[in-house]
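in:
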């Protein structure tokens, strides 16, 4: 029904009024009934007027009864005709009003943004659309008649919003801006508000606020800014790596000359050989950093997964120190996978260095190679392992471990659990990128005070 009298009464008392969901059939019947009642009322008033006028003439002029009867008949005919015309006019007007009202409500309910109608005096919500459920978690019935305080992250934010609405209503201007709001579960989110003033059928001003959840948009913007920062840092790192490689070339040239000098003793030659190996490794790291900055992909080739850990083990024995015990667990039969050999060695060294830093008081570092067939699903960085046969390279330690909250963060660029100045936050990120290029998986298991185990899963070739 068109609750016009009730709406007027509520408005005059400044009470919150909520437009109920419209039933089209009931509303159409109400419109037609209103038109019929208006036409009948108009006809009755005119009929009474004509009859009373005729009676007055009858008593005044007895000899003109015939004329009076004719006049009354003409008047009644006029009433009937005008009543029909009035009914048709009212019916068309009210049906058009009905169509507009139903169309408005359908649009109001279909809008995906939250629409809040706010009373000018009490600043309570007088109506809201169903989108408020998905955005805030509140049902419309829970918010209608209440202030917007439940939707704000703090009382201060609510006061700021309330004062803004009062100013907009007093000056009849508009506002577009952002507010921090809160869902029913307590989660805060960023929202964009478009607030304006409209007047209802009785001329009463109301504030209407269209609220859009832009938290996803903000997240994308932040990721874009982060990507741009990484790109800038990558360009800088590429230039530094190039210059560093030039210096390494000079160092390696002089070491090669010293190694070939006949006067060099065997002990010195051994030390020079170790220095050359370290310099070549540094040059390879610089090359990998340049490739990563330029977003170059690795070149996977067929390799035996056992060889890289064996080669790295010989180097790690000399640099890990006496407090850390190294173990190598390698099977007898080859395990062939597709991987970039240089990046595979870099990945092992990165993981071994992380393990060393996690064991300042000493411990055990193990490099192990095995193969396994999966028929189920295993959660790893970036997704689940697909069923199939894999070669597995494991680097495990008995160090401090990583908290569960950190596990989802440690492969992100520049994220580190080490002290300031002791870690770049790029090691695990490079390992994760290497595994993606190898179409493999990086799985990390860790427990505080018990250690960390990092598994590299390569599909068997």
């Amino acid at each position: 029904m068109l609750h016009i009298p009730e709406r007027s009464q509520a408005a005059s008392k400044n009470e919150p009024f909520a437009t109920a969901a419209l039933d089209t059939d009931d509303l159409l019947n109400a419109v037609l009934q209103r038109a019929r009642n208006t036409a009948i009322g108009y006809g009755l008033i005119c009929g009474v007027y004509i009859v009373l006028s005729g009676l007055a003439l009858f008593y005044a002029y007895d000899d003109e009864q015939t004329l009076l009867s004719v006049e009354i008949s003409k008047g009644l005919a006029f009433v009937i005709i005008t009543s029909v015309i009035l009914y048709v006019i009212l019916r068309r007007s009210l049906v058009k009003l009905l169509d507009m009202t139903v169309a408005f409500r359908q649009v109001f309910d279909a809008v995906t943004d939250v629409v809040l109608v706010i009373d000018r005096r009490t600043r309570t919500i007088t109506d809201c659309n169903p989108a408020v459920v998905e955005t805030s978690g509140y049902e419309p019935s829970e918010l209608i008649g209440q202030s917007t305080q439940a939707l704000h992250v703090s009382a201060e934010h609510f006061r700021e919003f309330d004062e803004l609405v009062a100013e907009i209503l007093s000056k009849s201007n508009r506002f577009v801006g952002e507010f921090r709001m809160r869902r029913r579960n307590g989660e805060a989110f960023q929202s964009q508000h478009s607030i304006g003033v409209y007047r209802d059928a009785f001329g009463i001003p109301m504030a209407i606020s269209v609220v859009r959840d832009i938290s996803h948009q903000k997240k994308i913007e932040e990721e874009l800014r982060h990507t741009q920062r990484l790109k800038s840092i990558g360009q800088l790192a590429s230039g530094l790596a190039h210059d560093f490689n030039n210096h390494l070339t000079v160092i390696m040239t002089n070491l090669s000359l010293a190694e070939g000098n006949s006067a060099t003793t065997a002990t010195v030659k051994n030390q020079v050989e170790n220095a050359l190996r370290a310099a070549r490794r540094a040059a390879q790291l610089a090359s990998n950093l340049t490739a990563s900055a330029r977003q170059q992909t690795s070149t996977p080739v067929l390799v035996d997964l056992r060889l890289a850990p064996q080669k790295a083990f010989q180097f790690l024995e000399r640099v890990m120190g006496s407090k850390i015990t190294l173990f190598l667990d390698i099977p007898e039969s080859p395990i062939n996978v597709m991987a970039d050999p240089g990046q595979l060695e870099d990945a092992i060294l990165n993981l071994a260095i992380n393990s060393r830093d996690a064991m300042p008081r000493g411990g055990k570092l193990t490099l192990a190679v095995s193969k396994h067939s999966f028929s189920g699903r295993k959660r790893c960085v970036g997704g689940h392992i697909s069923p199939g046969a894999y070669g597995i390279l494991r680097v495990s330690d008995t160090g401090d471990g990583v908290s569960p909250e950190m596990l989802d963060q440690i492969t992100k660029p520049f994220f580190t659990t080490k002290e300031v100045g002791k870690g770049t936050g790029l090691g695990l990120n490079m390992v994760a990128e290497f595994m993606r290029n190898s179409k493999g998986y990086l799985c990390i298991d860790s427990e505080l005070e018990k250690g960390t185990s990092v598994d590299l899963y390569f599909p068997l070739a």
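note: The longest strand covers residues 188-199.
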